[in-house]
Amino acid sequence: MSSSKEADPTLGYLTRKDTEVKLPRPTRVKNKTPAPIQITAEQILREARERQEAEIRPPKQKITDSTELGEYRLRKRKEFEDLIRRVRWNIGVWIKYAQWEESQKDFKRARSVWERALEVDYKNHTLWLKYAEVEMKNKFVNHARNVWDRAVTLLPRVDQLWYKYIHMEEMLGNVAGARQVFERWMKWTPDQQGWLSYIKFELRYSEIERARGIFERFVDCHPRVGAWIRYAKFEMKNGEVGKARSVYERAVDKLSDDEEAEQLFVAFAEFEERCKETERARAIYKFALDHIPKGRAEDLYRKFVAFEKQYGDREGIEDAIVGKRRFQYEDEVKKNPLNYDSWFDYIRLEESVGDKERIREVYERAIANVPPAEEKRYWQRYIYLWINYALYEELDAGDAERTRDVYRECLNQIPHHKFSFAKIWLLAAQFEIRQLNLKAARQILGNAIGKAPKDKIFKKYIEIELQLGNIDRCRKLYEKYLEWSPENCYAWSKYAELERSLSETERARGIFELAIAQPALDMPELLWKVMVDVMGGGCEVCGLPRYGVTHGQEEPRRKVEEMYNGKSDVGLPTLGNYQEHDTRTIERKFSSCATRSEQAFVDFETDEGEFERARALYERLLDRTKHLKVWISYAEFEATAMDTDSFEHKWDNFLNLFILFVPATGVFEKALNYFRSSAPDLKEERAMLLEKWLNMETTFGQLGDVSLVQSKLPKKLKKRRHVATEDGSTRIEEFIDFLFPEESQTTNLKILEAAYKWKKQKLSSDD
């Protein structure tokens, strides 16, 4: 039962154990030492070759009489015929059949086989070649000539047939017949090698005139540079210098625009150089460099430089080097026409040479490569091509009309609806001013304001009109400026300064009022004071230079206010140094001085002696923002806001001067109370405020109360905190924290309270 269960019907009711293939157990090698007799791979191969059995070859049959020969031929012919019937298209079978008939010396049958094969495929030139070779080998010359004649008639484009035919005639000494075959061949306009073979054939028999005639026909059939150069070298080899020069000149007339013209000019120049005609060679090189495209003249430039180094003077060598560099730049701009740096280098090269027409040509080619996209970043380099072109026409070429045309085309090229370049408008207007055409300059600047208004354009236009004394035009321009950009504090302050310089105090005050009433200036983060040049220093608010780009201004600003330096006959300490900024204040650059109109208004009122008005303006500014800079500026204003005329009459006692600094101290107290109560997180600003207050109290000398401020100074503590990184992990960084005196007292109270609570819990647990 168990065996029947193990049986498998698919195996014929055999068990799998019966069908298992038992492999021999691998024998374990006990002795692994090398054998005493070693055998090499060479010996193994030699033994294998010796043991090979001999190749089985059919026995050789010896024919003893004509009967056996006839039977052998009949059998072989039958085999070949049967094979041809099966594979009629196989030319190899036909060739073997014909060659076998030839070996039997039965030439008629051999010719019959060849002819039958040609009927199958007469276009196979191999058949013709072997057929003719059989006839020539057996010295059947007329038969061979007949075969060649038929072959070249049917296959005139197979050059090998012509070569073999001509070679046979020449070997037979039939020169006239070979020439006749060449003439038949030339009617089919073969390639250059066929013509050159004909020429060499004539030269072998010293037929110079015939060869010259064939060369004439050759260059007419193949009007290529190589053919003309061969013709000229042929004439030169035969000592015909004049004819060789004539050939070169004819070639230049016909092929000066050919792609291979460079080779022709180089060969022509080298020919003249060999003839000691250096001036002719130089003229050929220069003519070629002017007419051949730069991309195809690499070898020509190299040859010309070598020629000038050998035969030319210093000027000629420099011209050759310039030509080589010109070729390099042409190659660069051809590869990348939008690489404007290459165009700049190329233009500088041409300007160093001084050829006006070539310079203008390069400029025109350069400006024709307009950037592909209407984005300003693509045009920033391109626009300088136009600028340099206009400056060249004005300064170097002295052509005012072309300069005006260049500016006009440039302005038409720029897409002003997307972006514009103020420098182009200003350069065009300044050019017209230099040409004493003020009307055109105003028209250009007016178009600029209408199409693409920019700060630079307004500033320059106002500056020009101000220099001309046209105050009404300046006012109109300022009005246009403020209509276009009402949030621009610079424009408001400059407009007010203009009115103030004209002693129009009320107008200036009205402009300032309008400026600070602008809604765009109500954002607290933008309400910071304009830079005021105090004692030749920087911004009164941020401590940065007046002409720094941090405030968005690119020109130095005129001093607006000279504050009182504290000179006194009663020995008042000098207050001029109180404006020095510490390092942290300078490092804390705030983002904008947008309310330069607000501070300019304060400075205006201060200069006018309206200290109450200035104080009211500071209060208005503090209503908008409580920024640290505003508090410091307000305190400094209070420390310097005094009337020197009343000072000499009212203050007779040195101690009473202390009352002068009470308002400044009050401002610092208010600022400190604000940061303590309303903004406790701004510890660093609070520390900076106390440090500024301490500096001011120090400058007051005996009148200052340094101890009052020192008691409020915080302690610096170095702490650590966890900071999240971009990848989601955290890292620990160190930072400086400030601990103020009132905070330390609160901390001590909390510690005592915690200790009392712990002691109370301990006593309750003991009970």
What does it look like?
This protein is mainly alpha-helical. The protein is 64% helix and 3% strand. It has a two-stranded antiparallel sheet. A hairpin with a 5-residue loop joins strand 1 (715-724) and strand 2. Helix 15 (261-274) runs antiparallel to helix 16 and helix 33 (628-640) runs parallel beside helix 36 (683-699). It is elongated, with a radius of gyration of 54 Å. The two termini are 90 Å apart. Residues 1-5, 522-597 and 643-656 have low confidence and may be disordered.
Total helical segments = 38
Largest pleated sheet: 2 strands, antiparallel
C-alpha Rg, in Å? 54 Å
β-strand amount: under 5%
Major β-sheet strand ordering = 1-2
Helix content: 55-70%
How would you state the average pLDDT, rounded? Answer: 76
- Overall geometry: elongated
| Count of distinct strands | 2
Keywords, please?
single chain; 767 residues; mainly alpha; 3% strand; disordered N terminus; HAT_Syf1_CNRKL1_C; mRNA splicing
What topology emerges from the helices and strands here?
Elements: H1 2-6, H2 16-19, H3 41-50, H4 66-86, H5 91-103, H6 107-120, H7 125-137, H8 141-154, H9 159-171, H10 175-186, H11 192-204, H12 208-221, H13 225-237, H14 241-255, H15 261-274, H16 278-291, H17 298-311, H18 314-335, H19 340-353, H20 356-367, H21 376-379, H22 382-396, H23 400-413, H24 422-434, H25 438-451, H26 455-468, H27 471-484, H28 489-501, H29 505-516, H30 583-587, H31 596-607, H32 611-624, H33 628-640, H34 644-650, H35 662-677, H36 683-699, H37 706-710, E1 715-724, E2 730-739, H38 741-766
Antiparallel strand pairs: 1-2
Helix pairs in contact: 5-6, 7-8, 8-9, 9-10, 10-11, 11-12, 12-13, 13-14, 13-15, 14-15, 15-16, 16-17, 17-18, 18-19, 19-20, 20-22, 22-23, 23-24, 24-25, 26-27, 28-29, 28-31, 29-31, 31-32, 32-33, 33-35, 33-36, 35-36
Family: Belongs to the crooked-neck family.
Subcellular location: Nucleus
Function: Involved in pre-mRNA splicing and cell cycle progression. Required for the spliceosome assembly and initiation of the DNA replication.
